[in-house]
Amino acid sequence: MNWLLPNAAMKFLENSKFEAINAALSVDMDNCRIEGRIESYSCKMAGNDKKLFKTVQGNAESSPGGDLQVLSPPQSTVSHSPVKSYGRSLSDGEGYLCDTISTKTLFYLISTLNASFNPDYDFSESKSDEFSKEPSAEWVLNVVDSQLQTTAKDVFGCLKQNLWAAIDEEIMLRECDVYSYNPDLSSDPFGEEGSIWSFNYFFYNKKLKRIVLFTCRASSVSSYGDSGIGADIAMDNGDDLLFDNEDDEMD
């Protein structure tokens, strides 16, 4: 179930293909459980969200950068130190040259998290340095494929093509900026005990005024006890839905 705040800035957009994929992304493996979902939101600002925007704007005005806020480097590239990294030059003795984000875009990302994880988490006080801009959609696609292929193996292999085709159809990947959310463990909705890895990616198409959130985690089986039975049922249902939608994609 998707929980939304009253008059939420991000209007949840229903997508039957996403629902099928989300069912298939909840699955028990031999040594872990994978829980993932993709959701689409339309960027809006109305009602109670003006208060959140003022909070984000106030945080921005109190920093040296003004409206443009500094992002953290992508976690997937921090360990790399090439002479030139996807358009940003690095010199000896210098740190990673970080991207910046506008107040409005940061507001959209925070609002997306609030809409997706409400009522369990409130991200209203999140800062720009908890987010990163990824090199490209293709880069993220490869990172996600590698992570899920390693953990979910054949399960993800059967799902991968439909997953990325559905996301591309919804958001037009080549036109997107991609951001990630990398908070400290106390703020991370996937930071509970037993978490092995997690990721939170935002595919933002400014022209469409739309964001697709792809969030996923792997947790040790011991942290769930005997709860895997429900996941097996969800997986079976997800397979049925995916097969039903394959014919639509072929048309």
Structural notes for this entry:
The structure is a single chain. With 251 residues, the chain is an alpha+beta fold. The protein has one domain: Repressor of RNA polymerase III transcription  Maf1 (Protein Transport Mog1p, Chain A). Helices cover 37% and strands 23% of the residues. The protein has 6 helices and 11 strands. Helix 1 (16-24) crosses helix 6 (228-250), helix 2 (49-61) packs across helix 3 (103-117) and helix 4 packs antiparallel against helix 5. The chain is globular. Residues 1-7, 78-94 and 226-251 have low confidence and may be disordered.
Question: Secondary-structure map with pairings?
Answer:
Blueprint: E1 10-13, H1 16-24, E2 27-28, E3 32-43, H2 49-61, E4 68-70, E5 84-85, E6 88-89, E7 100-102, H3 103-117, E8 131-133, H4 137-152, H5 154-171, E9 177-181, E10 195-205, E11 210-220, H6 228-250
Antiparallel strand pairs: 1-3, 2-3, 3-11, 4-7, 5-6, 8-9, 9-10, 10-11
Can I get a quick summary?
By secondary structure, this protein is α+β, with helices and mostly antiparallel strands. Helix content is 37%, strand content 23%. Helix 2 crosses helix 3 (103-117) and helix 4 runs antiparallel to helix 5 (154-171).
Give the fraction of residues assigned to helices.
Answer: 25-40%
Total number of beta strands: 11
Annotated CATH topology: Protein Transport Mog1p, Chain A
Spell out the CATH superfamily: Repressor of RNA polymerase III transcription  Maf1
